[in-house]
Amino acid sequence: MKIKILEDGSGLLDNKPFPSVGEEVELPAGLAISLINDKRAEAVAESAAETRETAATAAPEKRGPGRPRKST
Predict the structure, then answer these.
(1) Which site in 18, 57, 67, 68 is 20 to 30 Å from 11, CA atoms measured?
(2) What is the pTM of this model?
(3) CA distance 13 to 4
(4) pLDDT at 14 over 70
(5) How far apart are CA 71 and CA 62, in angstroms?
(6) DSSP string, 5-65
(7) Using one digit for the tens of pLDDT, what is the confidence trace for 21-44?
(8) DSSP tag of 3
(9) How much is the pLDDT for 5?
(10) Is the CB of residue 24 less than 8 Å from the CB of residue 3?
(11) Count of beta carbons in the 10 Å neighbourhood of residue 32
(12) Could you give the 3-state DSSP secondary structure of residue 4?
């Protein structure tokens, strides 16, 4: 999966030095989605279908608080 780095990082990423801000890199899907969910990277869409797939995977739907508890 191709992503664009939004934040500086240190250390290694996929056994290579962490890319610079603005750099586009190809990473395994699990690692790429993890960086996207942490808001450290964004997906680079190569097609409309890929954009829909990434959006569905990267941003899970949040549920509301639910109904109140019963009083005993």
Answers:
(1) 57
(2) 0.57
(3) 13
(4) yes
(5) 26
(6) E-S---SEETTEEPPPTT-EEE--HHHHHHHHHTTSEEE--SSHHHHHHHHHHHSPPPP--
(7) 999 988 888 888 899 999 999 998
(8) E
(9) 92
(10) yes
(11) 22
(12) strand
Q: 62: number of CA atoms within 13 Å, CB side?
A: 3
List pLDDT tens digits, range 40-65.
999 987 655 555 555 555 555 667 77
Q: Return the biggest CA–CA distance within the chain.
A: 58
Question: What is the phi/psi pair of residue 24, to 5°?
Answer: -100, 130
Angle at 61 between CA 3 and CA 5, to 5 degrees: 15
Q: Which residue has the tokens 């240190």?
A: 10
13 to each of 5, 16, 32, 37, how far by Cα in Å? 11, 5, 10, 16
DSSP state of 68: P
